[in-house]
Records
---
Amino acid sequence: MAIERIVIVGGGTAGWMAAATLSRIRTGRDVAITLVASEAIGTVGVGEATIPPFVNFNKLLEIDEAEMLAAVQGTFKLGIQFANWGKLGDRYIHPFGGYGYEIEGVSFHHLWHRLHAEGDRRPLQVFNLETLAAHFGKFARTADYASDDLPPMNYAYHIDAGRYAAFLRRYAEARGVERREGRVADVALDGESGFVTTLTLDDGSEISGDLFIDCSGFRGLLIEQALGTGYEDWTHWLPCDRAVALPCNRDDGSEPAPFTRATAHSAGWQWQVPLQHRNGNGHVYCSEFMADDEAHDILVANMAGKPTADPNFLRFTTGRRKKFWNRNVVALGLAAGFMEPLESTSIHLINTGISKLVSVLSLDGITQVQQDAFNRLTGIEYARIRDFLILHYHTTTRDDSEFWNHCRTMAVPDTLTEKTELFRRSGQIFREEDELFNETSWTAVMTGQGIAMGGHNVMADGLALDRLRDEIDGIEKSIRYLVGIMPSHAAYLRKYCPAPA
Ligand code: FAD
């Protein structure tokens, strides 16, 4: 059956990201794109920290960066600072760019380890531009200083989620997407194929379609409630199941930092996402070890100023749908699954879900092979991210609460154990199946959590020490020089993308 009508259910970040992308389909055939959402139900109201591929998502839509950032009170993000994770008082940054550079095929952290073994005491972090710039609250884009001798700057954004969805709504509507207001009250399925055919809204009006994109949030209106796809629960590996979100003013007079903060508490952790006009804050916690009131009080006690809204309490079950694409329904965003926001991966998964969908989409109809490829690749992506998140919880020496004792001693997937053991022994990291997190990410978090590299790639021993010292001195010098001439992040925002007052 040819696809002539695409229906998106949901007007949150996922729905509008899908609508904006699909509005650019140019095949010469008519495809009607309708998005239905309910103001009364609203959106989840969180999801403000992104990772670098999101910059490219906006570029592909030909969105002007400065205009978008001004519209969404956006700021730049160079990485995530983790505090109190490996042990209380610890702090490290997971940066978005690499450490140094590879020499003769050997990754930098092995070269650093070799020099370390020879007595060089400089920490790995000083060889990373994003870490140093974040530390000093500095920012510039590569385009501002483009020079072959200096390292590029890798970044993502902090965005106001509601404003970003509104921005994409304007974009998509200008390109022909029709938005319908209303609550979907009933979903009709075809008796033979089981495909979704028609949605009935609470005012009795109907919307029929050939392909449905379920962006209805945690409830999974089509993928779960209508099709009963099933859910794989990962709570035994990622036990946090609650969050309370609360934005605040920056009454402490601080400027927006160019990084997200993730500060561990006794049964979870707190995020701080700096926007131009306010901070986004939230406390992700495990209901088995902490009550809602306590989580709320800890959050309020650790914010930079007075709350600007009422607390938003959320419940979730970490995991994924058994199928992301079932019959003629593709689930994106929270409808597809959820892993907590520790590494800001949810919006990224919406992004990659959309690009996989667009890659396999054919307006001639839906085939099993499309669905199988989409489901297999998405499943791998989820599992690799899951392992990376578990790493933060499991690899800790914290024993100051029942929660941390549980996380430290819980069983973890074999795939993760293999990764940490290889690193412990030889510093080796294999990037599996095109996974999102690369060598820098794994190195940053494993070393940050306190796993020491027990050795390095034997090829690093074949490089002359003098040459190695010269190279890494040069790297450190150029990073320090560059950070020295950069403006502060706050000054950069004021000049490049100031939001209207
Ligand atoms: P929602 O925002 O819930 O939107 C669902 C839409 O469906 C709404 O428009 C609603 O009105 C509509 N709808 C539902 N039912 C019906 C119906 N019956 N009829 C009509 N319409 C209906 N992600 C990140 O990348 N970075 C982060 O920092 C981050 N932080 C997070 C923190 C927390 C605590 C949580 C829970 C999530 C976080 N996320 C984060 C995830 C992020 O919020 C989501 O991925 C993103 O907002 C997309 O949500 P959504 O569009 O899938 O769902």
Note: The first helix runs from residue 13 to 22.
---
Amino acid sequence: MIDTKKIWMNGEMIDHDNAKVHVLSHAMHYGSSFFEGIRAYKTEEGTAIFRLDEHIDRLYNSCKIYRTEIPYTKEEIKKAIFDTIKINGIKTAYIRPLVYRGYNSLGVDPSNCPVETMIATWEWGAYLGEEALTKGVDVCVSSWRRLAPNTMPTAAKAGGNYLSSQLIKMEALENGYDEGIALDYSGNVSEGSGENLFVISNGKIYSPQSGSSALIGITRDSVITIARDLGYEVVEETISRESLYTADELFFSGTAAEITPIASVDKIKIGRGQRGPITEKIQEAFFEMTKGENIKYNSWLTWVK
Ligand code: PPE
């Protein structure tokens, strides 16, 4: 159960138990929803939202790809996010804005269904477990591939895309792993079910490029900036499956997952089978930034007034 008092729905604050949709809503039948996952952290000066503008821009872009016009301005959505955090009285937050096609008519064409918007906020701890942040997770390469280009756009964070994620995740858990890494249509590395991936080999950092059917993460972008600032070379390129097994370090990045080290892939130990030193340095800089303690990155934080 998600513990939150109020949910913002179409301009109004609704009690958790009353935040309902009709079973004939278009999104229920055809996956027509678009969302974001945003984190807000506790800092000395109060709660700060991490890269709010970038997340809002991506939400509007996801909707634009699907010809869906959000009936609010970006400023209105941002204000609604502030209000929802405040009314729920939380200091750290996972923020979930969702735009979806509601109830009017069924049939594939969504054009006549209303565009509805909701924002929920709650406290969400470490995505893959608190221990995972230091010890790392055991993952497998999924038998499921990510969406091929020209099938469904992976740059849009659409509800329907997460059917692919569910297959990857359930298969991994069923087989005793914490998470799965999916390959893209060509058999090269794409991403985790809900995270981007980084590979470290011989002191260089690699991440699959945007053509590899991965969502281009905002955390990924932040990791690239932090790593370069720390003096590492970061290369975005095609990554083969076998380079996962021979890497010195691997880690996931994502809003929910933050920076989670990977200890093994398909039961093959990565490096020493624990968090590697470069991963640790990047993680350290990242969490310092989320606490507002790294002034260099303060432009990434929006304080909730
Ligand atoms: N790939 C996928 C498929 C993905 O879902 C996410 C975020 C990322 C990459 C990383 O993107 P970013 O958050 O911008 O760094 N996944 C969100 C949803 C997770 C969930 O289980 O729900 C998230 O992390 O909030």
Note: The chain has a mean pLDDT of 97.
